[in-house]
Amino acid sequence: MLKLMYGSPSVPTDCFGIHFDNPVGLAAGMDKKGENVPNWESLGFGWMEIGGITLHGQDGNPKPRMFRSTKHSALINRMGFNNPGSEQMVENLAKQKSKKWASIPVGVNLGKSKITPNEEAEHDYAGTMERLWEFADLFVVNVSSPNTPNLRELQAGSELDRILTACNEVNTRMAQTADGGPKPILVKVSPDLSDEQLKTVADSAIAQGCAGIVATNTTTSRPAGDKIMSQTGGLSGKPLRKRSTEVIHLLYAHTDGKLPIVGVGGISDSESAWEKIAAGASLLQFYSALVFDGPSVSKAINKGLNRKLKTHGYQSLSQAVGHAHRS
Fold first, then answer.
1. Adjacent-strand bridge partners of 66
2. 142 Cβ partners below 8 Å, 6+ apart?
3. In what helix (H) or strand (E) does residue 202 lie, and over which residues does it extend?
4. Closest to 38 in 3D by CA, of 92, 102, 91
5. Helix 121-132 vs helix 86-99: crossing angle, to nearest 10
């Protein structure tokens, strides 16, 4: 019944060497425990990202830690990477895979355990990646959540290089063991970085052979407004739309479109989705819109994207990526 109600029209595209029936993905943070992997496609998603997952299990920050602003169509969270940890996650995913698995690509968001000092962060990320390698089609290195103390410091060039080097080593080794190819690794960036800092992250990602960038994570900035906006944590939803699009536009221009970008932040309809694609996003993700607008959002976005492609005379989504830079 879910497939009949919410299945999306096809908007096919290829990215990172993976085929996507449509570009709209479930952003990390919704299915933190990877409990619903076979079912997200029933809501029209073309791919999903589970987690964030840390090497060690952790409870996250004290409750309450999630706040909703209906006025702004925004969420503020300070969850703190609450998750069962990599070892338990292996059991969770193995049980599902033995019965039924997703037919859409599955991404795994890698976070850093709170108890792990930044100086040892590479062991945390690489350790989780090694345990979960068989279950993922791609990995996202999350060094940009505002809810783990000092985590964002790991976006600095030398720190990020250290983490990506360790993840690349695991990726190569696991691929050889499986007699296959390495999995795509992406880096998720903060919208609160300066433009120069964002360029440095992109340069590090390219130098380390990363497959792409996820732009962006939640923001610590706030719109003026209601009492909810005084809560600490990461803001997502419509107030993030403008800055995330700016970041996508900047990164696409800086890399000459050679580093694929996943656009996330304030996507709630086909107009906001098309804006991200025009700025340079090859794939999309959302989370908050699922809370405010319900399970039909993916279907509506994909319908709208097909209309946009036809109106603009594009034969495929990949042709439309970055078209704002060419107009």
1. 77
2. 28, 51, 52, 109, 110, 111, 112, 188, 217
3. helix 195-207
4. 102
5. 20
**Distance (Å, whole) CA 196 – CA 298:** 33
pLDDT by residue (tens digit) across 136-195?
A: 999 999 999 999 999 999 998 899 999 999 999 999 999 999 999 999 999 999 999 999
Tell if the pTM clears 0.90, that is, is over it: yes
Given the residues 8, 73, 144, 145, the one annotated as active site? 145
Rounded CA separation 185/210 (Å): 5
Q: Evaluate whether 155 touches 193 at the Cβ level (below 8 Å).
A: yes
CB atoms within 10 A of CB 127: 20
Q: How far apart are CA 280 and CA 318, in angstroms?
A: 10
Which domain covers residue 314, as residue numbers? Answer: 2-325
Number of neighbours of residue 196 by Cβ within 10 angstroms = 7
Looking at the structure of the chain, the number of domains it has is 1
Among residues 195, 149, 143, the alpha carbon closest in space to that of 166 is found at 143
What is the end-to-end Cα distance of the chain in Å, rounded?
Answer: 42
Q: Which two tokens stand for residue 45?
A: 């998603």
Question: Alpha helix locations (H) across 118-156?
Answer: 121-132
The full length of the chain comes to 327
Q: For position 282, which CATH number holds?
A: 3.20.20.70
- Whether 145 sits among the annotated catalytic residues: the reply is yes
- 213 phi and psi, to 5 degrees? -125, 140
Q: Work out whether the CA dihedral 238, 244, 245, 246 comes out positive or negative.
A: positive
Residue 226, pLDDT score: 79
Asked if 105 contacts 20 with a C-beta cutoff of 8 angstroms, the reply is yes
Reading across the β-sheet that carries 66-69, which strands appear in turn? 66-69, 74-77, 234-237
Spatial separation of the C-alpha atoms in residues 176 and 296, rounded to whole Å: 41
CB 214 within 8 A of CB 187: yes
